[in-house]
Amino acid sequence: MARTSAVKQIVLTLRRRLLDWSYPPRHQLTEESLCAEFGVSRSPIRQALTELAAEGLLERDPHQSYRVRQLLLADVEDLYEFRFAIEVQAVRGLARNGLPKDVEARLRDQWANPEKLEDLSRQTLASLDEAFHADLVAAHGNQLMMEQIRRINERLHAFRAFDFSHTARAQSTGDEHTAILDRIAAGDETGAAQALRQNISSGLDNVEITIMHLLARSHSCVDNKEKRHGRRSL
Asked: What share of the chain has pLDDT > 70, as a percent?
């Protein structure tokens, strides 16, 4: 495997684990264990860890090792507020200038059947929710806003997915999305902003519970991995 492709694959794999909370906060990622796992030398591992630290997913401690930086409650609240600040400009602009009919029809259709939504996995629902909001920002036409929303969606994906584990969350999200589209179609900037605020605020309601769940899951993932490694070492 060429070094460039090796680094890219390591970054992709570790980024997904970090975003999915497969590691708990402050968990140390050692070069030795990662070299053994990926079958590469220290050099590509160091480059991958440096890239992930630059993204804010890892932090380097005084001993030159890398530790996992997971989101705290305040971080999540800041991300939701930043997300609203971006998206509210998009929905206001769409209420003024119009949303393309084909985009509106597609977004309405995706969330129109509550029974179908209830059959989808929470990961799929989270991805559909991300796509709904990203499509509105894309229709607004600001590429810088699109890039910021993409990054925010990455960091919040695990929170969104857990949120859809709650009963009737898919249906209520569909209703909230429909309300946003209705206000945009009516040319109601204030109403569109209020409907968006309601939708985003709903996602914040269970953040503390979600963090507790993700913490428990991340510790379980590490414990199970260590047990498997221990059995292989016997």
From this structure: 95
